[in-house]
Amino acid sequence: MTTDRFGHSLQRRLLITMAAGFVILLLLISVLLWTYAREAANRTHDLLLAGAALSILERMSVGPEGATVDLPNSAMDILSLNPLDRVQYRVFVPGQREITGTPDLPLPSDATLSAEPIFYEVDYTDAAFRFVLQGRQLNAPDGRKWVAVQIGQTVESRNAQQWSFFAAGLAGLAGLSLIGLGFVWVAIRTSLAPLRQIASDLGRREPGDLAPVGGTPPREISGLFDAINGFIARLQRSRALTETFIADVAHQTRTSLSALQGHLSLAADAENLDKMRARLIKADRQALRTVRLTNQLLANAMVIHRSDRTSLRPLALKPLVRDTLAESLRDSRMRNVTLSFNGDGIAEGDDIVEGDPLSVREALRNLIENALLHGPRDNTIAITLDADDQNVRLSVEDAGPGIAEADIPKAMERFTSLSEKTKGSGLGLSIVKAVAEGHSADLQLRRSTLGGLDVTLIFRRIIPLLLVLLCTVFSAGATQAQTLTIHSATDTPAMTPLLEAFEARMPGLKIEYTEFQTVDLYRSMLELDRANWPDVVISSAMDLQVDLVNRGLARRISLPSSVSLPAWATWRSELFGFTFEPAVVVYDHRAVSDEELPRSHRDLATFVRENEERFRGRIGSYDIRESGVGYLYSTQDSLQGLQAIRLFEVLGRADLKTYCCTSDMVAATARGDLAFAINVIGSYASDLTEDTSHLRLHFFDDYNLVMSRTAFIPKTARHADLAEQFMAFLLSKEGQRIIAEETPLLPLIPSQVPHSQIERHIRDTRGTFLPIRLTPGLLTFLDALKREEFLTSWDTSLGRHRQRP
């Protein structure tokens, strides 16, 4: 039997105790560190909220209709420095009216409006938000009035930053703790050196050296020192007992063999056959006793050797007992003995115990042998096997003389026989006792109902585990096809190759594709009941898509690691761009020569002003009130400088014609109705002008805006898993290849080998293309006041007059 060197290590226990102390201290410090990390993260992100609030307050003014605001793009740009969180805002006059933004944002219950920012956290639209509330007083005709700005962000980014601060601080503390534990380990090793010295002294001893350990131990281990010497004394006594047992075995064997030799010598010296026969009969009986003694000595050694628990395994007792009885019936001594087995009441599987079959078989053999040896010639031996919920009982009864209750302990001692008449080896019951101890079984000896001895072994039962096989039952009919619903503002023919390729990958899938205009799609998502939302939403109006995602309508997904997107084309792992769509100028080179085309937006304004009569009514662009992508291009142009506003005015004086979509503008230019059209979607224009020789595309040298068709999966999508697979397909190498080769669209990830003239131009002059980033900054021009102000300026530039709604 080996001892686990590490199971009871004093060094390890001391180290674990010290480590536990360090852990408790670390936990206490962690609480303080967590609070500090929270405050630090809040301070960082609160600066963004406060900066955005201040920039809005600075643009507050009093007009004819009261307080108003010109929402600055810088406010949303400041909030966009946090690339993860959704944004909500509100501008209002407390207790009077809403100016703009979301009117139902929650206010703190006990806050008093002031010029100092007030920060608070509250749940809104199923998400945790942190808000800032700040006010400013304006001079109005009826006196000074307070106006307030309320801006909130979800707390995902600040939570992540808090965890980052906390993890960094905790890592440092953990490092210091490990260094401290290292010093503790050195101290423990030094303190326990005397123990290692004792171990070394014992290790150098000869096997027969059982002398006490000498020396003067440290006071702290004197008790251990005395215990070791006490153990050595007990080991010396045990060794003496073992030597005595070996001597007894040698004596028993020698005595038996000597008796056998004596009988044979007398038989050899016998004077007649009768005496010789008598001596040979005695020698035969002695030989049988010697064989039985030898067998039992071997059995005793085997049982002791196999008493280790590692040799035990699940064992069914019923077949083992039957096999052993069948073997015993071959013994000639069993001719006059009635041997019975009663195990019919035990069901299959109820007789399972943890046991060693060889040891249990040997115990049963010895019980039957004892019954034969000590019982009458016409003995009756009954073996019974039964079980209950916890135990399995194996009983052996006989009709012999039995054993007095007072003699039972003595009967199980080695080399002890209670009857001189039937004296055996004295090992039978001691072997059974060793088997019981090795199996953690109970051994009971009592008077048998047959008049003799009843020996019962009680084993602990193992209840077998039932393995339940789960199988899927398919209906006899065909499997119902799944339907993936897509609402999109992309022309159906342009998306068809992608849809067909995905359907081919997913047998049984049907895609239901519904086409919208960008603004209609946006309104549809706001008006539809959530239960009727599609599985995927696709649109080229990036700002409208950002607004839908910012409202919490999208599901966060994880794309495969093989998909790598530019940072500008994804937001919150919820909204993803999958195409690269530059804004271009489509022109009729019969009306405008290549050489005179302006190279920049500033030059375009000058060119149109100088040729106003020439191009009057022959310049086209989007109707930005009806076209989402047209509004997006126009607002993003306005951020590039004052030349955009100047260009609007020049185009208005030249009687700009507006259209709903790219195809109408290209068709009008092809007919000669237009000399050129600006801010046309490049991929569509390239495809539509391919077969018209007098139509060409023009790019500017200062910048060319790039939008991306974006897609997201609504939170209540009925087939979210399929939608996620479709999204991954759009952005995979295969999906991008199909976009480049089989559709008029341009892939987000550039092809290694361009497939069209426009792709080659993009590759050669990629530095002139300015992607529109998916950030909350796109929400600026969706603000109701800001949008109406921009559209009013647009109408005024075009000479149109509309009443405010």
UniProtKB/TrEMBL annotation:
Cell membrane in keyword set: no
Keywords carried by this UniProt record: Kinase, Membrane, Phosphoprotein, Transferase, Transmembrane, Transmembrane helix, Two-component regulatory system
Domain spans labelled Histidine kinase: 248-463
Class of the enzyme per the UniProt entry, highest EC level: transferase
Pfam families (alphabetical): 2CSK_N (PF08521), HATPase_c (PF02518), SBP_bac_11 (PF13531)
Reaction(s) catalysed by this chain's protein: ATP + protein L-histidine = ADP + protein N-phospho-L-histidine
SMART domains: HATPase_c (SM00387)
PROSITE patterns reported in the protein's UniProt record: HAMP, HIS_KIN
Major place of residence: membrane
Protein name: histidine kinase
EC number: 2.7.13.3
Signal peptide: none
Keyword Metal-binding listed: no
InterPro entries recorded: 2CSK_N, HAMP_dom, HATPase_C_sf, HATPase_dom, His_kinase_dom, HisK_dim/P_dom, HisK_dim/P_sf, Sig_transdc_His_kin-like_C
Source taxon at top rank: Bacteria
Transmembrane segments: 14-37, 163-188
Domain called HAMP: residue spans: 189-240
Protein localization: Membrane
